[in-house]
Amino acid sequence: MPEVNVEINGRKYRMACEDGQEPHLLSLAERFNRQIEQLKGAFGEIGDNRLTVMAGIAVLDELGEAERRIASLKQDVADLTAAGEALSQEAEDLERRFARRLAEAARKVEAIATAIDDTGAPQPQG
Could you tell me which InterPro entries the record lists for this protein (predicted)? Predict the structure, then answer.
């Protein structure tokens, strides 16, 4: 299992990760370190443990907000999918009704054409 060295708040840590995940782990550590640096800028030197806990809570807050947003977007997708299915069903129903009415109109036109043909046909003499 590969290991990488990360630096958080000026301290180096050796961490193991899955093969090929080294760049991802380094990126996460850099992001977390930036969070700590931002907190240090806002609150000053408040102690390593407290700073790390605050950074962890801030990251979890961001994660919670992202999870809520994802849940909202999933609901939006479900709502839009249901609406699309309803519209599709409505379009199919309209198409069936239109086809029935068109067939009915064609029968009527055919009946009128037959009546006209019968009216205009020469009468047998006798």
Answer: Cell_div_ZapA-like, Cell_div_ZapA-like_sf, Cell_div_ZapA_N
Question: Is residue 6 within a helix (H) or strand (E), and if so which, with residue range?
Answer: strand 3-8
**Per-residue pLDDT tens digits for 60-77:** 999 999 999 999 999 999
The alpha carbon of 88 is separated from its chain's Cα centroid by a whole number of angstroms, namely 20
Alpha carbon separation from 108 to 53, 94, 98, 105 (Å, rounded): 82, 21, 15, 5
Angle at 107 between CA 105 and CA 110, to 5 degrees: 110
Structure token digits, residue 47:
């102690």
Question: How does pLDDT run across 30-59, given as a tens digit for each residue?
Answer: 999 999 999 999 988 888 889 999 999 999
Q: How far is CA 97 from the centre of its chain?
A: 34
Say how far apart CA 77 and CA 26 lie, in whole Å.
34
